[in-house]
Design goal:
Chain lengths: 255, 249
């Protein structure tokens, strides 16, 4: 977490609605994410968190509303411009999404080779070594994803997004399926990335420990609407039964 | 019934997208080259083995029937017609459907359900072009080469059997064999193998790229890719043979 948050939104969502068949997942959501902040979106499974983050990344199109990312209206971008914008956005997937057929080196090189074709071998090797060092996994460079633990996969997944030095990081359930110690390490890494790379981040999670450790600001999503937002303590200070339930079922210690 | 037609329409759109993306730069030459290797080189051993055995066994089984009429000298030309016109393209396509089609379905299906396709998309790479276009181009181009190769190996199998029984020389065998073969037969072999290759690539990619429901979906994608490819290959064989025969009349 950082104190250097500027009141300049890098992501702006207005009246976002998204429906899958008869199920309305997002019901008119407004959201601003400011430069340099870690914003945590909390919510139960099926509350629309992942849909929200995919809309920000331009992987899903909302039925209504506007999505502005780094000053660009995503809905009006041509495919080529959207691809260019995506080089400025890092997306860390819940499943890590490492390419099974490539080793760690090839996984990390992939975005670089695809998007910065002018780079030479030395520069690519240096960039790979740098991000691996940043996530503390230099020794895994020649390993295949199947040889890595869950926590290592998450770190390599984050490293792969960092290699393009993004301005925005999107984390989809960064601690899902990890033990408490590994989760704490990932939370630390998220904060380190924010400080070192000066990124603005959106962290989608239902893990309150992660939310508390990483969030400068927390918003709570329930049934397609934001219930509350503020600091972690502010969000859980209210009397809303849905928020209280979420807290009681998830978080054993006091905030 | 409605679901069936919706699926057919969806496949049509998928194929249309392939043609759109295949001709728009940037071209994925390296990915296409890698797939040439995967589809072609990695299938050579099985194509060699099955081609040789097909030629050998088919000649052996045909001998007794021709021998009744004292027509074993027709074996080389009969085998050339059978192998070049029908067996080589069909057997090659069925083997590639089983080996490569299932592999494409499972690989893309697995990438889809583990978000690797999405990861490619957010890495500013067009996953359709990188994964689908490269594979369909590879199968379309490589299956004709493999079918021609199988034709050659099958004829060698046939030669071995004929040589063992009738002591026919190598050059005499191939002179007799190709007496009845026209350039049109070679063109048709290449053309229909390309159609089969396209079908295998399209079926594998479509099923894999649209896989869902986790590991169950991956298995289903692999299975459906093979079944649909094989079914369509037989339908296409029937149509192409009818068209060629009606052209020759």
């Amino acid at each position: 977490m950082t104190d250097t948050i500027h009141k300049e939104p890098v992501i702006r969502l207005r009246n976002i609605r998204k429906r899958f068949g008869s199920l309305e997942v997002l019901k008119g959501v407004d959201l601003d994410v400011y430069k340099g902040e870690n914003l945590v979106v909390l919510g139960r499974s099926g509350s629309g968190k992942s849909v929200l983050i995919k809309i920000i990344a331009g992987m899903l199109t909302p039925d209504t509303g506007s999505v502005t990312v780094l000053g660009e209206d995503i809905r009006s971008l041509r495919p080529r411009d959207l691809q260019a914008l995506r080089t400025r956005i890092g997306f860390s997937f819940q499943s890590s999404a490492l390419y099974d057929g490539m080793n760690v080196r090839a996984n990390l090189e992939f975005p670089l080779v695809r998007n910065k074709r002018h780079l030479g071998r030395k520069e690519i090797d240096a960039a790979v070594a740098r991000v691996l060092e940043d996530v503390g996994l230099s020794q895994t460079i020649d390993q295949m994803p199947s040889q890595l633990s869950g926590g290592q996969k998450k770190r390599i997944g984050i490293a792969r997004t960092l290699i393009l030095q993004p301005e925005i990081m999107l984390y989809d359930e960064p601690t899902a399926g990890l033990d408490p110690v590994t989760s704490a390490n990932i939370n630390e890494l998220i904060n380190e990335v924010q400080e070192q790379y000066n990124t603005s981040s959106v962290i989608i999670t239902h893990d309150l420990t992660c939310a508390k450790a990483t969030g400068d600001r927390v918003v709570m999503l329930s049934e397609g609407c934001f219930l509350r937002q503020g600091s972690f303590e502010e969000v859980f200070a209210g009397d809303d039964a849905r928020v209280k339930d979420f807290y009681n079922y998830n978080f054993i210690s006091t905030p | 019934m409605k679901a069936f037609f919706l699926r057919v329409y969806d496949i049509y759109r998928f194929a249309l997208r392939f043609f759109q993306e295949a001709f728009i730069p940037p071209y994925e030459f390296k990915a296409i080259w890698d797939q040439f290797f995967e589809v072609g080189i990695r299938s050579l051993s099985i194509i060699t083995l099955t081609g040789f055995i097909t030629g050998l066994v088919f000649t052996k089984q045909s001998r007794s029937s021709l021998a009744e009429f004292g027509a074993t000298s027709w074996l080389p030309s009969l085998m050339a017609i059978a192998i070049i016109r029908a067996l080589a393209p069909l057997v090659t396509a069925l083997i590639i459907a089983g080996k490569v089609g299932s592999n494409i379905g499972a690989e893309l299906g697995s990438m889809k359900v583990t978000e690797q396709v999405d990861a490619m998309e957010v890495s500013s790479t067009n996953p359709f072009k990188f994964l689908v276009v490269s594979r369909i181009i590879a199968t379309t181009c490589v299956v004709p080469v493999l079918a021609s190769y199988m034709g050659l190996v099958g004829m060698l199998g046939a030669y071995l059997n004929v040589h063992t029984n009738e002591q026919t020389g190598f050059s005499l065998f191939f002179q007799s064999a190709f007496v009845r073969i026209r350039f049109l037969d070679i063109y048709v072999l290449v053309f229909k193998s390309a159609v089969y290759g396209f079908t295998i690539g399209l079926a594998g990619c479509y099923n894999g790229y649209n896989a869902d429901q986790g590991t169950v979906g991956v298995g289903r994608a692999a299975n459906t890719s093979v079944v649909v490819s094989m079914f369509l290959i037989f339908i296409e064989e029937m149509i192409i043979v009818q068209l060629v025969n009606s052209y020759l009349k």
